[in-house]
Amino acid sequence: MQPKGQQLIGQDAFFATGAAIHAINPATGEQLDPGYASGSSAEVERACGLAESASLEFRTLSPQLRAEFLDTIADQIEAIGDELIERGMLESGLPRARLEGERGRTCGQLRLFASVVRAGEWLDVRIDPALPERKPLPRVDLRQQHIALGPVVVFGASNFPLAFSVAGGDTASALAAGCPVIVKAHSAHPGTSELVGRAVQAAAKQCKMPEGVFSLLFGSGNDIGQALVSDPRVKAVGFTGSRRGGMALMATAQARPQPIPVYAEMSSINPVYLLPEALETRSQALAEGFIGSLAMGAGQFCTSPGLVIAVRSQALDDFVSAASKAITAVAAQTMLTPGIHSAYQQGVKALSENAGVRSLGNGVESEAPNQCQAALFTTSAEAFINDHNLQDEVFGSSSVVIECDDMAQLKRVTEKLEGQLTATIQMEEADTEQARSLLPTLEEKAGRILVNGWPTGVEVCHAMVHGGPFPATSDSRSTSVGSSAIHRFLRPVCYQNLPQALLPEALRDGNPLKVSQLVDGKRIV
Amino acid sequence: MQPKGQQLIGQDAFFATGAAIHAINPATGEQLDPGYASGSSAEVERACGLAESASLEFRTLSPQLRAEFLDTIADQIEAIGDELIERGMLESGLPRARLEGERGRTCGQLRLFASVVRAGEWLDVRIDPALPERKPLPRVDLRQQHIALGPVVVFGASNFPLAFSVAGGDTASALAAGCPVIVKAHSAHPGTSELVGRAVQAAAKQCKMPEGVFSLLFGSGNDIGQALVSDPRVKAVGFTGSRRGGMALMATAQARPQPIPVYAEMSSINPVYLLPEALETRSQALAEGFIGSLAMGAGQFCTSPGLVIAVRSQALDDFVSAASKAITAVAAQTMLTPGIHSAYQQGVKALSENAGVRSLGNGVESEAPNQCQAALFTTSAEAFINDHNLQDEVFGSSSVVIECDDMAQLKRVTEKLEGQLTATIQMEEADTEQARSLLPTLEEKAGRILVNGWPTGVEVCHAMVHGGPFPATSDSRSTSVGSSAIHRFLRPVCYQNLPQALLPEALRDGNPLKVSQLVDGKRIV
Lengths: 525, 525
Description:
The structure is a homodimer.
Chain A: E1 7-9, E2 12-14, E3 20-21, E4 36-37, H1 41-59, H2 63-80, H3 82-92, H4 96-119, E5 125-128, E6 142-148, E7 152-155, H5 169-177, E8 181-184, H6 190-206, E9 214-217, H7 223-230, E10 236-240, H8 243-255, E11 262-265, E12 271-274, H9 276-295, E13 307-311, H10 314-327, E14 333-334, H11 338-353, E15 357-362, E16 371-372, E17 375-380, H12 381-386, E18 398-404, H13 407-416, E19 420-426, H14 432-445, E20 446-451, E21 490-496, E22 517-519, E23 522-524
Parallel strand pairs in A: 5-22, 7-8, 7-10, 8-9, 10-11, 12-13, 12-19, 13-18, 17-18, 19-20
Antiparallel strand pairs in A: 1-2, 1-9, 3-4, 5-6, 6-21, 14-16, 15-17, 22-23
């Protein structure tokens, strides 16, 4: 299957008529065919209308059928075969192994959500049976479940053309919740998007889903995206991208006559703390691990370690010189888009020109287009505390080591941090008390706290939190990775005194769906 | 104990220095002493500073100790004795029995949240154990729990001077979650607020809570409230009141450098559907039940039935004439404040002057100050669909009967409705199919669906949802009544590969807190 340059609305595929978008092969700078004529308000209207009309049937589908749909999407993506990987490589500059791994993750994620839908925890079933004899007033029968919010708009991210894009985590969790999804494709990988979109479309057909459960629109600029977020039929938004882009969507969503939630994952610099004994014991290994994490995928991860924080010591000097040396061996890597490359260069330039910052070293340079040359800097805690610009995310393999005078200053740096997706502690047993004193602040700053690992590598599981306080995300009460992500697209409804025949199946006597329940506040499995 | 006119910050009680607020006895119009000198930015600063400093200790307190605090608040409120009821009657015009009932509900609610804190479901513990042998990559140990968001600002509501005010549902659920609370007292019942605030203060002292876990500020106008919502140390807001008030807080919260969630419960007209067979069988009883619900508490409930929707028939005519007759017997009742009374009169006047609306009758008139004279109107479905003003909440005992030509038109009316706290269906078995066809739309419009009851009367339990799509609330994903309300003030944190000594107690091996867990996606009790 080769991409054709078509928009997908329900089971239809067609050429729109606006200005054409072309992907750029970032490794060569060449323009890739086919072009994708931008959609217009007519396509927004059609996709939203179909999504709304599909909404009721889809959200009230039996969990079994919705799970099958998710499983089938995974099957259909795998069935595309190598053409998907090749197209992804052309459009993203990412290596084959990375995209094959990402495809595995994407399909695994869809199947995880299928199992989540079947297990039924997401329904959050609560039953408070009637107490007709209660004094002074009897209690009527009250039951609660969660239902889908309605149509969701998902913005594909550039840095995971499969796992955070057309059939990525946002789409999988929204579909799992029972929400129709309209994806606004990222213009950096339209062909990859179309191929995956056709797989979802085929799965919808195969599973006899109501038409409109999925659509995929292409458009240049922000017009289509803003129109989608403004449409009254859309009930929530999932986004992964820049802080500016996320905040623009938040503003649009709040300005609607009926405001809606926006789940925007935006900006994080992911501090790594090197505690004294860990530095003392393994400064060389830490330097290698750190540079490995920083170099991975040209640092184009939301969880790339953009900040290293430690107290000055001989061992820290050893770490710094080992890291400065290790970074010189980091090969140049093709970045995802010319825009990301240019933003990276600007970010690195701003750090280089900052009087409070000193360069520690760079990776290998390259003359090829859009190459990321890794960069490592250092600054004092004082300078970091006084210069908010040093908290700006530089998306790519750039990081800053902050040298603190003592633990008290290290804590002041921590308190100054904005919200983060992750915070990492490198420690030995002798560092336990220092780690313990840091933890409460880290809990308030980050969605995930790691010990003796590196923040890159986000496990898709039930306990994962890929989220965190603003600006890491727009809503710290949620995660965009892992099974908890389904809760973003659900809301509770209470049913008071409904006859059995009218109750949703999950709430009926005898627990026909065999889901865990909270009965009178007690958990029954 | 008599109120003194003091602000409460932490364990301090003192007189502020701004312009004085006096409660008005709405039954007489007379001004009540003491006056409450308005607080200023200095008090906001002090309360927020103390709340922040209390935050860590309070959120990491053992569930047992936090539960004791909640129980002790209930004990202390009861210990105030009759002076609380008498002060509440003076300030609100509400009758003794209602306030005694409300005190019972308030204390019951605090004790419910104590039991919720002890049970630990709110922690949402998830454990994905390490899989060191997994291929191609091992999985590290990942655990998740929920933690408190941080200091919460609560705005007391005028219509429940106990249950939705200083120690009402928002405060109880925020404290249960581990969030320090700063209450902005409602200026309609400052004395009642101070008495309850002193009870919370005494409980905090008795239970040795960190100072700042609770403060109570008084202030006229919006200055104090806006300053509290703008303060960077505040992490969430609970509000019950007008649509305009709620939306102003939402705008302030979104405009902060770090936006925060606002849980505003604002506006709902609570449609009641009378299905044909129910009308046929019991039009007289329905009329009496409806007028009883409408008249209760002068209609000053968020869930007062402001809309009755039915298909034209002889039985509907019978209902209408019975309701028109029953309303003439509704005694005038003192409304909560001159402001609410004046808004009610304006709302009723607007309906009276609306060309598409016809008056069906009124309750007993009274010359006494601030009296609610019940009012019943009727209009056609066509008129309702075409005039959005008819969806404006008229807070008080006013309701509109919408007569529809057929079920199809009744459904169009339903689709036009804004978000609601409740939707009620009056039905007999023969109405089942019609009810079934209505239900999906009602699920999308309302937080609670009732059959054969009346929406006034909100049970405080585990399955309750007192929430709903905008403008019923600012966030349909939550409830402000019932044990689920605790989730508004929590966020998930993931702990990756933490040594046992550093893990929060709830996540340690052996489940020391004995809470239910999701282990590898499976529920373990």
